[in-house]
Amino acid sequence: MSTVRYSRKELNEKFGEKQEAEIQRLLAKGTIPDDQLNLSDIPEITDWSNAVRHNQFYRPVKQQTSIRLDADVLAWFKAQGKGYQTRMNEILRDAMLKELKNHQ
Questions:
Q1: Residue 93 lies in a domain
Q2: Partner of 77 for a Cys bridge, out of 25, 32, 68, 84, CB 3.0 to 4.6 A?
């Protein structure tokens, strides 16, 4: 996935008059300092113990290693096609998370 950038001219071509008017209205407002934001309808979260990461951009640090696997197990994973190492990692991660959850 890559970032797409548009020039102001390209944006004007993509948006209609209604969208352009909304953009101009928002730009005219300027930036509101944090201490002037009204957050009364948003409760502050102080307990993050049950938080779950659902971020498609999260990438754990990978570490290269060498492991010994049964030949038939490795053949089974490889037979499923490209990405077999990623699938192996996902299965191990699921097992790890279940184990961690059971010990809480």
A1: yes
A2: 84
